[in-house]
Predict the structure.
Amino acid sequence: APVDRLAQAARECRERGEPALALQHLEQALASAPLHVDARRQRQDLLRERGRTGLLMREAQDAILARPEDGHAHYLFGRLVPEPVTKLRAFTRAVELAPDSVWPWLGLGHSLLNVDPARSLSIYARLYTATARHPIVSVAFAAALREENQLDHAADLYEELRLDPRVPGVADLGLAQVNLARGDRARAWSAAMGALRARPYDAGLQA
């Protein structure tokens, strides 16, 4: 669908370090499909980076008031709230209302990581299979595995991600973090340099 292509174009702009152009794509997508979840979540990320969290929170709260049975409205609200208990409650409600959607499950998997890591990883594993290893899921799953010190499994996922052109440098960045956790500074440095070559616009890699 055209709106999906616009959302993907926005993601590619973000990966190239072009947030202003990404936001243009997202506004165009949302003009034709105001409830498009991926476009909304990407817009949340971009506006949060610009300090517009207050605006986003008001929008998310208004969406729940207008559509209380919309699981995606609860999901988008959950992405914004800082309190872990409120976040978990929002994602749980989102899953109840939209059990066939990937997005609420992604949110629930993330919010459970510090509460019930086994269930969190189980959710990620199911999503990884169900989405045919979509990079958004793969990146989240690998990060969760890394946090749980399952470094070999995380490294395997990052190696697979190296073959996906939709997320340039992300695999190398993940492998750098894995190798740092292993105490292998040489491999960590090599992977970090690979990430920097693929993502020269990433300020976090230049710090």
Notes: The chain has a mean pLDDT of 94. The longest helix spans residues 2-15.
